[in-house]
Amino acid sequence: MRTVFIIAKREFRLFFVSPAAYSVSVMIFLILGGIFFINIYFGLRGGQIAPDGRMVISPLVTILLFATPAITMRLLADEQRMGTIELLLTSPVRIWELVVGKWLGATGFMMLILGVTWIYPIIIHRMTNPGIDQGVLIAAYLGLVFMISAMLAIGTFISSLFNNPIPAFFITLTLMLFLWIIGGLGSGSGTASEIASNLSFVAHYYDNLYRGVIDLGDLVYYMSLTIISLFLGTQVLESRRWR
Amino acid sequence: MKKRLLSNSVPFYILGITSLLVSASWYAINQLVDVGVTVGIALTVILLVIGYAIDPQRVKGWLRGRQAKYGSNALVLSLAVIGIFAVINYIVYDNPKQWDLTEDQEYTLSPETRVILEELPEQVNIIGFYTPSVSAARDNIRPLLDQFQILGAGKLNYNFIDPLENPFMAEQYGVSRDASLVVAFGDSSEVVEFASEQRIAEAMIRLMNPGESQIYYLAGHSERDFESNEASGYGRVRSALEARNYAISELNLIVNAQIPADTDLLLIAAPQVQLTEGEVELVKEYLAAGGSLIVLSEPGLNIEGEEDLLEDYLTTDWGIELRNDFVVDLTSSLRLSGISAQYAMHPITEDIQNLVTFFPSIRSIRFSEMGEGTINRVELVLTSEQSWGESDLQSFNEQGVLEYDEESDALGPLVLVATAENNVQGSRIVVFGDSDFASNGFFFELGNGDLLINSVDWAIGNDQLISLTSKPSTQRFVVPPSNQTIWIILILTLFVIPGSVIFFGVMVWWQRRNTR
């Protein structure tokens, strides 16, 4: 387990010298800041600002769809491109430790960004009398933590498949878009639609967590996606030994 | 060349498997083998054969050798892990557990509903009939139904059905409006429109305590026909009432001069001929004993100079006078219709505050002076201020003149529907100046049908069976920030936060450049 944290720490630090990570975070903060300010400004003009701390959360979820593949694309693909993966595979590091460490480092970085976005609800909270509903906010952010973990794990898995970050980015994006829109197939009725809507990445977030209700099923869904993806990533790297 | 071909067989396998997956999901969604599925499977076979034909050695290599051994191991292991998690997810999905973090416990059922759910004697099914076009409403009701299911502890299940896909099922349960729920309990069921915790709980109470309410509709004066499916008939009223478990039968007081003891409600729907003195006497006695009555009138029914005994009774005993006019509103798009501009706060109109009702040709109602008494009257539906009650039917019929006459015409807002309740006897009446609005032709228009059905519920006393503990609802409002604060927010959100990330990035880049 210690190895996991060492790898995670190294990976976390690497983000602070990565131009991609900086562009992603600047993009996130610029878009969120813009949306937040427009909401406040025009809300004032219209005389109505919703006393809701989740103003930036739905745009954030959409941005994450594009941001997480950019964060994860080079995690394992770069190691394979540069050949450093051979070094890692022959070192006493176990493969799952490597995969989980890489994922944990990326998760840590995204959590830092997520932590900064807390500033928008705080501003709304200070302007609201008697304050916003903290419970809803906590559930919404808890959901984001689980959702981001799952997205990053998927990205890590896809990154293990490629020697080049660019296809890793696009395949991750495609896969996430697929999980995004699959809920739309569930608008009908019947078992298949039920399954489709239960696979949906967004429905699991917006149906309960976003409303302020923590549903065990949603958390288990995201955790399952995370663990399965990390497991598959480990299997792919493992396969380098006999391919 | 050999090498190129080698790598070229792989895309065929990938495409083949993709096509297999696509056709499998297509089949899972449509549940039938159509052209798409057939083509997909054919394509899969063709692609796999081409892949094999280009490079048979590769397949042979896969099947033998080390790769096959390790590869199949990894595949089996991965499938096992995915399978385990699928099972875990299914178990959790079947046994939901939720925590409501909202400050006002918005998604937590009230103690009264919990008691009902704890004491469910047998399996209850809630079926939601939602077409895909109202999937947003369906998603909104889901958390509430989840709560019912969790607290029902295995005795309550819910599922959604698309009435377009399954029209027979919708018909079987008597569902007529999109986005309705059906609470099914043993052999009986009840349709719940405007789903809410209150409505579902009430339906459950009614189903758990059967004992049908009996409605009689008066016949013998060429009233509205409750068996008729023509546009002017009342067949839809009948089926809507039956879907709510009311028993409804005809009553002819001339043939059989008594109102049965089991009568819960008497419906008088636009008699074309006046009721006899004896009949009105029976109605009077019935109401004095705590009965319930709904009267639907129609303009131009009573001939001037002739007295209508039923209307006289309503005026003298209940203080509800039906004027001899018809409501006109030239500013509206339905000029000769009474249109609801305002509802009273009343159990009947609680659900339909946002839904207009309109009455093609309607008489207005006046509350006559009555001393402080035991009768509690409510002006249930009111028209707009621009409307008036045209009393000169003759000149309108002959010349089509519509003019407000200050002397004889009453100016809006006019009362279209009134309710009254005798607090001592417990009798309740609802009086409508119109009967067309609930006929088959107009029943499903806007809130028309709901207004009549809700009136029946209220008159019988089948509403408000349970009063749920009201939840505190915290009122929140944003105090508009000063201009200075707005500037601070602008600078902070658009410049300081992104700016500091850029600054930090440049600093790191500069440091690394110098240390190199």
Describe this structure in words.
The complex is a heterodimer of chains A (243) and B (516). Chain A is mostly helical and 243 residues long. Chain A contains twelve helices and two strands, in the order αααααααβααααβα. Chain A has one domain. Chain A is globular. Chain B folds into four domains: 93 residues, no CATH class; 89 residues, Glutaredoxin; 248 residues, Rossmann fold (3-Layer(aba) Sandwich); 38 residues. In chain B, the strands form five sheets. In chain B, strands 7-6-8-9-20-19-16-13 form an eight-stranded mixed sheet, covered by helices on one side. A four-stranded mixed sheet of chain B has the order 3-2-4-5, with helices on one face. A three-stranded antiparallel sheet of chain B has the order 11-17-18, with no helix packed on it. In chain B, α1 runs antiparallel to α2 and α2 crosses α3. The longest helix of chain B has 33 residues. Chain B is elongated. β1 of chain A pairs antiparallel with β21 of chain B.
Annotate the secondary structure layout.
The complex is a heterodimer of chains A (243) and B (516).
Chain A: H1 2-15, H2 19-45, H3 57-72, H4 77-82, H5 84-90, H6 95-117, H7 119-127, E1 128-129, H8 134-160, H9 165-185, H10 191-199, H11 203-206, E2 213-215, H12 216-239
Chain B: H1 2-30, H2 35-54, H3 56-63, H4 65-94, E1 98-100, H5 111-118, E2 124-129, H6 135-151, E3 156-161, H7 167-172, E4 180-185, E5 188-192, H8 197-208, E6 213-218, H9 235-243, E7 246-251, E8 265-269, H10 277-288, E9 292-296, H11 309-318, E10 320-322, E11 326-328, E12 337-339, E13 342-343, E14 358-360, E15 365-367, E16 375-382, E17 388-390, H12 393-399, E18 410-411, E19 415-422, E20 428-432, H13 448-460, E21 477-478, H14 483-515
Parallel strand pairs in B: 2-3, 6-7, 6-8, 8-9, 9-20
Antiparallel strand pairs in B: 2-4, 4-5, 10-15, 11-17, 12-14, 13-16, 16-19, 17-18, 19-20
Helix pairs in contact in B: 1-2, 2-3
